[in-house]
Design goal:
Shape: elongated
Radius of gyration: 22 Å
Order of helices and strands: HEEHEEEHEEEEEEEEEE
Strand content: 35-45%
Strand order of the largest sheet: 1-5-2-4-3-6
Structural class: mainly beta
Oligomer: single chain
Helix content: 10-25%
Length: 251
C-alpha cells in the first residue's frame, strides 16, 4: 500500500513539473537594454547591411544582438520573441514582443560585465529599439532580464534582392526573408550560366565576381532550417544596380 502511494505521489510531482515547464519550452535567458530614441534613427544602417528599416519592412520592431548571438552576422534576419521577467521594471500584463535581428551590439572589453558591458561574450543580450523596450519594461529600468526564443518571421511580400556593385563585382543584399529568416546560403544564376555559389561579404550581403550584366537573374536562398527556395527570373536582362527585385518567400 505504501509503495503504491509513493508511486502515485511521484506521478503527481511529475505532472506538476511538466505543467510548469511546458509553457517555457524552447525559451532561454538573456538581458535586454535599448538604444536610440522613439523615432529609431540610430537603429538604421546597422551591421547586418540593411538600410532604411522602414522602407525595407522592418520598422522599429528590431534588435541588435550581442556577440554570443550575432554569430559574425550569420544570425541577421532571425526573429525572436522576448518577454520581460523577474524585475520590478517589467510592465505588468505586457506579454511579449517580436523583433528581427538587424544590428550588432559590440562588446566593450574596457569594462567588466557588471559595469555596463552587457554585450561582452559570453553574455546573451538584446539591445532593442526604444519603442520595443518600452513595450515590455519601464524606461527607468534601463536593463531587464528576459526570456527569449526563436520564432518564425512574419513578412509581407517576397524576399527582396537589392543589387549593388559594378559589372565586375555584384553585391546582393537579401532581406524581408520569411520563415526562420536567417539566410545561410545564396546562389545566383544568369540566363547564360549554371548556378553560381555566392559568398557572404558582411551581414546579409552576398557577393560574386562573375559578370552577369545583360542576363536575367535567378536566386536560390537557403535558410538555417535547411529549406531552400528558388526564385526564377527575378530580375530581367535589363536589371540595374541599386534597384530592388522581389522573389518568392518562405511561409
Amino acid at each position: 500500500m505504501a509503495s503504491c502511494e509513493i508511486v502515485v505521489a511521484w506521478a503527481i510531482v511529475a505532472l506538476v513539473f511538466a505543467g510548469s515547464t511546458n509553457g517555457d519550452h524552447g525559451w532561454d535567458y538573456a538581458h535586454a537594454t535599448f538604444y536610440g530614441d522613439m523615432q529609431g534613427g540610430a537603429t538604421m544602417m546597422g551591421a547586418c547591411g540593411y538600410g532604411n528599416l522602414f522602407d525595407q519592412g522592418y520598422g522599429l520592431e528590431t534588435t541588435a544582438l550581442s556577440t554570443a548571438l550575432f554569430n559574425d552576422g550569420a544570425t541577421c534576419g532571425a526573429c525572436y520573441q522576448i518577454r520581460c521577467i523577474d524585475s520590478q521594471w517589467c510592465k505588468q500584463g505586457a506579454g511579449s514582443i517580436r523583433v528581427t535581428a538587424t544590428n550588432f551590439c559590440p562588446p566593450d572589453y574596457t569594462k567588466p560585465d557588471t559595469e555596463g558591458a552587457w554585450c561582452n561574450p559570453p553574455q546573451k543580450h538584446f539591445d532593442l529599439s526604444m519603442p520595443m523596450f518600452l513595450e515590455i519594461a519601464e524606461y527607468r529600468g534601463g536593463i531587464v532580464p528576459v526570456r527569449y526564443r526563436r520564432v518564425k518571421c512574419r513578412k509581407q511580400g517576397g524576399i527582396k534582392f537589392e543589387l549593388k556593385g559594378n559589372p565586375y563585382w555584384l553585391l546582393v543584399l537579401v532581406y524581408n526573408v520569411g520563415g526562420v529568416g536567417q539566410v545561410t546560403n545564396v546562389k545566383i544564376k544568369g540566363s547564360n550560366t549554371d548556378w553560381i555559389q555566392m559568398s557572404r561579404n558582411w551581414g546579409q550581403n552576398w557577393q560574386t565576381g562573375v559578370r552577369l550584366d545583360g542576363q536575367s537573374l535567378s536566386f536560390q536562398v537557403t535558410t538555417s532550417d535547411g529549406r531552400m527556395l528558388q526564385s526564377d527570373n527575378v530580375a530581367q536582362s535589363n536589371w540595374g544596380f541599386y534597384q530592388v527585385y522581389e522573389g518568392k518567400n518562405f511561409h
